[in-house]
Write a structure and sequence with these properties.
By secondary structure, the chain is α/β, with parallel strands linked by helices. Helix content is 55%, strand content 13%. Keywords: Acyltransferase, Membrane, Transferase, Transmembrane, Transmembrane helix.
Length: 682
């Protein structure tokens, strides 16, 4: 019993023993080191080196080394990239405006459907700047292979997609195509170049001449069967046949399953995705046909991850001269498109076959409609420009002068969106043609419509005195000359950068047009290439000038230039648009002062156009589905009731042409909206 008890006791003690933990497995304290110390140490090292009498360049280099260490160890690649994005936006655009960003869901899967894709690599930067969501973009794999900026794009963690046209290669030999869909080759190697499984996957592309001007168009056809090295059967009769031997290109098949699965998992995890459903960038004034990929991504992600509710946010990119530095952009986020897992569109998608195709078509139609709600589209550039002038003529004058960029886009969008409904009216096209002629006259004189209005203000402030107006003109010319002399060194520094960047970007735009079937002038790539060439030139030039100043003028001027010159250059650069507007108004003032007959003709034409535009827009209720247009009509009617002013009460000491200039810009209808009479109405 005692032995048994002892044995039991030993067993009990044994069962209660806790196994010893190896000292190697115990957690150990670690020295924590914040990367922010690099900034403090860099400041101290620079100050110490400077106090020790070491060369200033050594002190700066020492501080720069610690700053570089902070950037490498203290920030992630995406944080550094975001800092660069903010700097690019501030550098390239004079105004960056967002509307509707509060509509973007703060969490959960979101697809940002963006368009039009009119500024190549700047478009993703512009979209991301306006939202707090971390967006991964669908990016052409070809862009990631670029030697100039491809390495940079990889830090943004894009989802690469391979496109058939990017893998296009020139075929061996020549071909001719019969009307039955047979492709007959001469000295061709179809079996080798199309592969053994070419059925339904490869495409063949040719260029043919159309029209009487010898213009070439691209024709792409799907391969059904590779019969032999000298014969291919297409899957359907070709849209173009040729008895002549033609050069051809081969588009190999692309497997998108890997890309789609990455997208599904990213959205299933609550991520945000950005896509430009038009495909490649372009410089057209209307949306290109949207591709179905965005629908497959949204519906496919919900089919694979039923717990995820994918939201689609339409994003309209509205640029003001997207190919120019110091331009403006309005990013408009539209109403969210929700997709429910139990919705009919999901049921059809899951069913597959024709129902799946129908679901994709329906969703694509909804997406296209949502994009049109946040963009301004027109058949061509001349019509688009007419909408801008139409807006200016319809607006009361004071409203026009004070109008923000967002209001300008919304009003032009109202007229553009309703154009299809009203264009059948017999008065619409003749009026738009008159507006185009008026715009061409102004452009030929280097003038703008707003310049005429602001000149009228100067005329009024001069009390219609020709002598006073001449004094104002002389003062403005002297001011311009003084500003030019004061900032001449800065302009001389920026001028070669501007010229070289423009020449380089124009050359690249011509190459882009030659390689594309949708680009017109290649303006969509100009902004990107301007930045690619201008930024390195500015950095190298700044260091070079600092070094030369050190050699010629000494240490103190060189250090002052190194730190303060970039800020001065930036301020002068940002002031260039205002200076150009000032010059334009001065030119308009000279026109009104010295060529009164021409001014009279232009102003009378503007007055007639303004009356006809307002009459036609009100009669057709053109754009009245937008409240902003209705508000303009209401304000004009209210101002008419308050009117007690007549033109004949004004002094006519200047001349009849100046009075007409004033009358056409500030007529009775605009009374309480005009700056001229603010004091009278108050």
């Amino acid at each position: 019993m005692r032995e048994a008890s002892k044995s039991g006791s030993e067993m009990s003690e044994s069962s209660m023993d806790v196994p010893e933990t190896s000292t190697a497995d115990l957690p150990k304290g670690k020295l924590t080191f914040s990367p922010a110390w690099f900034l403090w140490l860099g400041l101290g090292a620079s100050a110490t080196a400077n106090s020790a009498g070491l060369p200033q360049e050594f002190s700066l280099a020492l501080g720069a080394a610690f700053l570089t260490a902070f950037l490498l160890f203290g920030l992630t690649a995406k944080q550094i990239l975001q800092f660069g994005v903010d700097a690019l936006i501030e550098l390239y655009f004079r105004e960056y405006i967002t509307m509707g960003s509060e509509k973007v869901p703060e969490r959960g899967p979101v697809i940002f459907v963006c368009g039009p894709h009119s500024n190549q690599f700047l478009d993703p930067v512009v979209v991301s700047k306006g939202t707090k969501r971390d967006i991964r973009y669908i990016t052409a794999a070809k862009s990631l292979r670029r030697k100039d900026v491809g390495w940079l794009f990889k830090y943004a963690e894009p989802v690469p997609v391979e496109r058939q046209q990017d893998l296009k290669k020139k075929g061996t030999g020549r071909i001719r195509i019969t009307d039955t869909g047979r492709v007959l080759g001469t000295e061709t190697r179809f079996r080798e170049e199309f592969g053994s499984e070419g059925k339904g996957k490869y495409q063949i592309q040719i260029k043919r001449t159309t029209g009487g001007q010898g213009k070439q168009s691209t024709v792409t056809m799907k391969v059904e069967t590779v019969v032999s090295d000298a014969e291919i059967q297409l899957d359907q009769p070709p849209p173009a046949t040729s008895s002549d031997l033609l050069q051809y290109y081969i588009l190999p098949p692309v497997d998108h399953d890997v890309m789609f699965n990455k997208v599904y998992d990213h959205l299933g995890g609550g991520g945000a995705l950005g896509i430009f459903p038009e495909g490649g960038s372009h410089d057209r004034t209307e949306l290109l046909p949207l591709k179905v990929g965005v629908c497959l991504m949204a519906l496919g992600a919900m089919a694979k991850h039923p717990q995820s509710r994918v939201n689609l946010v339409p994003v309209g990119l509205n640029y003001f001269s997207q190919d120019k530095f110091n331009s403006r952009v309005l990013v408009k986020y539209g109403d969210v498109l929700h997709i429910d897992i139990a919705s009919p569109i999901m049921t059809m998608f899951k069913a597959g076959g024709e129902l799946k195709k129908r679901a994709v078509r329906e969703l694509l139609g909804r997406i296209e409609g949502a994009l049109r709600e946040v963009t301004v589209a027109a058949p061509d550039f001349s019509v688009l420009k007419s909408f801008w002038v139409l807006r200016d003529l319809y607006c009361p004058t004071k409203k026009l002068l004070e109008m923000s960029s967002a209001e300008q886009v919304m009003l032009a969008q109202a007229f553009a969106a309703d154009y299809e409904r009203v264009k059948g009216d017999p008065e619409v096209d003749p009026l738009l043609n008159r507006i185009k002629k008026y715009s061409r006259k102004l452009s030929g004189l280097g003038l703008k419509d707003k310049g005429n209005i602001k000149t009228a203000l100067l005329v009024q402030e001069s009390h219609f005195s020709k002598l006073r107006l001449l004094g104002r003109l002389v003062a403005r010319v002297l001011y311009l000359a003084g500003m030019y002399v004061m900032f001449f060194p800065v302009h001389m520094y920026l001028f070669p950068v501007y010229v070289i960047a423009k020449i380089y970007s124009l050359r690249k735009s011509r190459e882009a047009v030659a390689a594309s079937t949708v680009k017109i002038k290649g303006k969509d790539v100009i902004g990107t290439y301007k930045l690619i060439i201008a930024l390195p030139m500015l950095v190298v030039g700044h260091f070079g000038c600092s070094f030369l100043m050190r050699l010629k003028l000494g240490e103190a001027p060189a250090v002052a230039y190194f730190f303060f010159a970039p800020f001065l250059q930036f301020m002068v650069y940002k002031g260039i648009p205002n200076m150009l507007e000032y010059i334009g108004i001065t030119r308009t003032l000279m026109l009104a002062l010295f060529t009164t007959e021409r001014a009279f003709s232009l102003i009378r034409e503007r007055k007639d156009l303004k009356d006809d535009v307002r009459s036609l827009v009100d009669r057709l209720e053109w754009g009245f589905q937008y409240q902003s247009v209705k508000d303009l009509q209401l304000r004009r009617k209210e101002s008419w009731a308050l009117d007690s002013f007549r033109l004949e009460d004004m002094p006519r000491a200047f001349s009849n042409s100046m009075a007409l200039l004033h009358d056409s810009c500030f007529d009775d209808v605009d009374l309480d909206q005009d700056l001229l009479f603010r004091g009278k109405m108050d």
